[in-house]
Amino acid sequence: MQEQGTISIHTENIFPIIKKALYSERDIFLRELISNAVDAISKLKMVSYAGETNHAAEPEITVTIDKEKKTLAIADTGIGMTADEVKKYINQVAFSSAQEFATKYASSGTGDQQIIGNFGLGFYSSFMVASNVEIDTFSYKEGSEAVHWSCDGSTTFTIDDSDRNTVGTTITLTLQEDAEEYLEEAAIKRMIRNYCDFMPVPIKLNDEVINKQTALWDKSPKSVTKDEYLEFYRYLYPYQDDPLFWIHLNTDYPFVIKGILYFPKMKADIDPNRGQIKLFCNHVFVSDNCDDVIPKFLMPLRGAIDSTDIPLNVSRSFLQGDPKVRKIQEFIAKKVGDRLTSLYSESREEFLKCWQDISIFMKFGSMNSDKFYQQVKEILVYSTTSEDEAVKSESGNYTTLQAYLERNKEKHENQVFYTSDPIAQGTYVELHKNQGLEVLTFDAFIDSHFINFLEREFNDIKFARVDAEIDDRLVDKESNTEIVDPKTNKTKSDHLQDIFREALHKPKLVIRTEAIKSEDAASAPPAIILLPESARRMQEMMALMQQGTVSFPEDHVLLVNTAHPLMEKLIELDSSQILVGGKSESGDLANLICTHVYDLALMAQKSFDADSMKGFLQRSNQLLTKLTSKI
Questions:
Q1: What does the alpha-carbon distance between residue 245 and residue 301 come to, in Å, rounded to a whole number?
Q2: What is the C-alpha separation between 302 and 292, in angstroms, rounded?
Q3: Which helix (H) or strand (E) holds 229?
């Protein structure tokens, strides 16, 4: 029998759309054809469970390459089609047989077989790479005859008899010249492993099974060992450090979602804005990008998510707008919060070891999701200078903000001292520690925003960086009132301010003089730079908005430590100036010392550029020369 007809198309020029616009990558054709083959095998199992057939062929999909004929064939041992079904499901573009079949057997108690297809367009993706497509199919139904269907990519097709004698379907593609890369075995293996690795049917190429078939996320979390989780991670992300820990998702209410999410060790090359999680739909790989499924603060997580409830478009490459996606995001965020909370409660030491890596997730998540913040606010921890036994661990000293506030209630109620760089700001940290003031560390790139967030959450609490201001506990107010120059009636404080102003010639620079308390006056710095908190934050915010770098604030404060022994020498030098040739040698030396003190204070706060470093070295050499001339 031979029959000719016209494919029923309800959209004009459908083939150019399929070939050029519907699918984002040509490789997808193999994914679609293999998905159809898996569906055919699932359908046969379903009708078998329903008692409609005794056919029980071994389920498998075979891919065959013929370089001489330039053909690629995908054969399955599935349900097959009759001539009428070919006309109905193949000739009517966008009529999904999977959807109709699933509806028919939805409530018939035929097992948990799932059908991949939804849209009915996947088969036609083959015309992206083929100049001609043929179908040879033999239905499981009694009395059926094998059918051959052929189409060259136009809207005409041919149906006649086929010599196939086993139940199932073979799709044969005659490849276009620009698609002959798909005649290479390596290319086909790569595509199968990429898109079809976890499909639950063996896929063979040259008698070799290519795909893994089983997905670890389908197993019960209780049955999976640590080694299995790690092995799966290494399989998904070869050559990467092992993850810190993981979360196994497995739920079927209020939506079906399975998967394993891994917390990786954070590295400089990890882009927190780029999704790392692989998205699957019923074991079919869809995308490396889960941006619309995963909350943004969890983007750096890795792993796999598989769900039949994620609303994909016809190409399966992009998500369609759907309120269900928001619920899925909230579900995943809650599961992550639950995992972090349980880790903190059950294995505090492991949690603290991971803190530097997971803190970014938790802080960003807290700022972006109030629900997530409510889950984790009691387990947000910070490195502290406290030596209290309650904060000590093998990983360092850590405290929660609530515990910090309670512990320091009598000393400085609702005041939090912090450092953004414990090394660069080490001098300031030590000054606070020496007076029994506890300092927290906020040194992540996100922390300037997170501190603002915490101040909004605790509206009666204020954060002050250790270099923002000198707390009253750190200074001796009375020591600066002593008169040191009877002629001018100047106090020590007044005298030193005059010396530094004359030496530095910086009208805009604010110079303050305070006696800093210290067990050893010589060990305290002779001067420090203070950066007022509000002004510094405003400058950081402006730099962020303008996508620029934070420059060193011009309106900084030079706080001169009047208790330092060097200051006594400066006053002596200034009071005993001897004019030589119209110049004061002791005055020049005092000026050089003041400038050097200012330079050292600046260096504790910022890096010098080439010109600044050159000037510093020149001034240092001049100072050393002056000093050695006095020896």
A1: 11
A2: 15
A3: helix 226-236
Q: Which residue has the higher pLDDT, 485 or 331?
A: 331
| Mean pLDDT across the chain | 84
- What DSSP character marks residue 521? G
Q: How far is it between the farthest Cα atoms of the chain?
A: 126
The three-class DSSP label of residue 110 is coil
> Is 509 within 8 Å of 540 (Cβ atoms)?
no
Place of tokens 């953004």: 420
Q: What angle do CA 479, 482, 484 make, to 5 degrees?
A: 125
What pLDDT score was predicted for residue 581?
44
Could you say which DSSP state residue 94 is in? T
* pLDDT tens string 50-63: 777 777 779 999 99
- Of the candidates 224, 220, 203, 221, the one whose C-alpha atom is nearest the C-alpha of residue 212 is 203
Nearest CA to 417 out of 350, 479, 344, 470 is that of 470
From the list 223, 237, 31, the residue with the least C-alpha distance to 121 is 31
Are 568 and 580 contacting, i.e. CB atoms less than 8 angstroms apart? no
Convert 429-478 into a string of H (helix), E (strand) and C (coil): HHHHHHCCCCEEECCCCCHHHHHHHHHHHCCCCEEEECCCCCCHHHECHH
Place of tokens 């400058």: 539
From residue 225, alpha-carbon distances to 214, 228, 431, 480, 604 in Å are 15, 5, 50, 68, 50
Q: Sheet of 462-465: strands edge to edge?
A: 439-441, 415-419, 462-465
**Residue 465 half-sphere exposure toward CB, CA atoms < 13 A:** 26
In the block, residue with structure tokens 């510093």 = 616
- What distance in Å separates the CA atoms of residue 470 and residue 627, rounded to the nearest whole number? 32
Residue whose token pair is 């966008």: 94
Q: Is the pLDDT of residue 311 over 70?
A: no
Q: Which domains does the chain have, with CATH numbers?
A: 2-209 (3.30.565.10), 216-349 (3.30.230.80), 380-472 (3.40.50.11260), 475-629 (1.20.120.790)
pLDDT of residue 626: 84
7-12: average pLDDT: 51
Determine contact, residues 176/130, Cβ cutoff 8 Å: yes
- Count the alpha carbons within 13 Å of 398 in the hemisphere toward its beta carbon: 20
| Statement: residue 577 has pLDDT above 70 | no
More confident residue, 529 or 475: 529
- pLDDT tens digits for range 203-239: 999 999 999 999 999 999 999 999 999 999 999 999 8
- Supply the pLDDT for residue 585: 60
Residues, the chain: 631
Beta bridge partners of 277: 303
pLDDT at 109 exceeding the cut of 50:
no
Summarised one tens digit per residue, pLDDT across range 351-380 is 999 998 899 889 999 999 999 999 999 999
H or E stretch covering 35 = helix 28-49
In 3-state terms, what secondary structure has residue 165?
coil
> What's this model's pTM, rounded to 2 decimal places?
0.79
Q: Which amino acid is at 66?
A: D
Confirm if 553 and 536 have CB atoms less than 8 A apart: yes
Least confident of 4-18, 161-175, 416-430, 445-459: 4-18
